[in-house]
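Before a colleague's protein record goes any further, I have to sign it off. Alongside the sequence sits a line of tokens, each denoting a local backbone shape. I want your independent view on whether this chain really folds as the tokens say. Where you disagree with what is written, explain briefly why. This is what I was given:
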Amino acid sequence: MPLTLEIAFARTQPAKSDLVVALAASADGGVVLPPAYSGKLDRAVKLGQFSAKLASTLDLIAPEGVDADRVMLVGLGDLKKQVADGWMRAGGQAVAGFRNATAVTVLTDGEGMDAEASKIADLALGMLLRAYKFDRYKTKRDDADTAPAKVKVTIVTSAATAARKAFADAMAVADGVVLARDLVNEPANKLGPVDFAARASELSKIGVKVEVLTEKEMTKLGMGSLLGVAQGSPRGARLVVMRWNGGKPKEKPVAFIGKGVTFDTGGNSMKPASGMEDMKGDMGGAAAVTGLMCALATRKAKANVVGVIGLVENSVDGLAQRPGDIVTSMSGQTIEVLNTDAEGRLVLADALFYTNKKFEPTAMVDLATLTGAIMVALGQHHAGLFSNDDALAGKLVTAGVETSEKLWRMPLGPEYDKLIDSKNADMKNIGGRFGGSITAAQFLQRFVGSTPWAHLDIAGTAMGSPGNEYSQSWGSGFGVRLLDRFVRDNYESA
């Protein structure tokens, strides 16, 4: 059962708690504790060999005079060398130690500690994200799952008022990440293209303008590339357009486009059976865009933003697309489909062109679990970044550093572009064995014109990526925090 946290902020410590969490920092070879415990736990710290390393813990029976059952020290590390998500990691690690507590006090202020509001909000955000659990289809609780379903958390800080305000935005981001995680974790029999479109349409309740295009409407628009992927499934296809107008009137929006293949068999170029169950997550890009729009609307972002997601199921029946088929995209360009498992780029081709033509955005960023090749190149700790604009790429890299949703820029160039030229059509959808993530990006670039554009290949980070203190979910929600920061820093009006 997911854990519900009721988080409040106060300048003074409550009279009684089941658990007191005391944040500790390392400085000059020693451990810095909040004033309430400074000098009182030296022996325990020494015997426990607790150095306050980031996300380290020391769990103790509460000393005499403390009205609590337990005291848990949680390390912040050396604050002068702290990583961007350090406070989030500490918050997540704290939640891992809550156990049977229903009332928890968190002490944050210590000599030399940076207790600014944004860091305290990050601490709370890490707690919220660690509390996430996807178990809605379990009919019985695990025997070991005996923790309370709800915990009241009081974070004690001298910056309580400012932290409370900053936390409102952090909760909005948490809502977006949780939505993205839920979507990626859903089994494909419960979340097809029509179901996903319905979930996205619920954002209209918080002020997002949502339009859903059906196959009939996409056919009229000439989206032969996207529809070709969907033709082997009886579950249909949808293009969902989400608009948040929080900026100045008539100001051009920034646009985000997501690949939403709700299940990918590979089509007639079928994938091996081993691991195919993970292809329920091949809509991680669309999930991130939907989560982003949720976050922006919930925190009333002062920006004009468009989110577009192409939703299909890549399945197999007698009508499914065949290797060698040639389709005509909305742009008028023709594509020879040599591998039906290189389908995400076919979906994005029409989604990108449609977005660019209809909204004339100042910039476009697409997200897609596009290639296994990006994992070969970068592993699962960075997403691949491809861009036709150095300034846009730089802003995204900076946002990635600030949120620890890290990006690594990959090359584009005419020598790679030649690899997708076709003798039978304007282009083919694969470029050969080498540089697969690059040729995929080169393919997408043919549909964006001169608009500043970036492509994020999140195949290694959106699903099944290594967990950390605030992410224990198979679906990570990668991209929501990154792009929220990107919008906040670059597109919001004062």
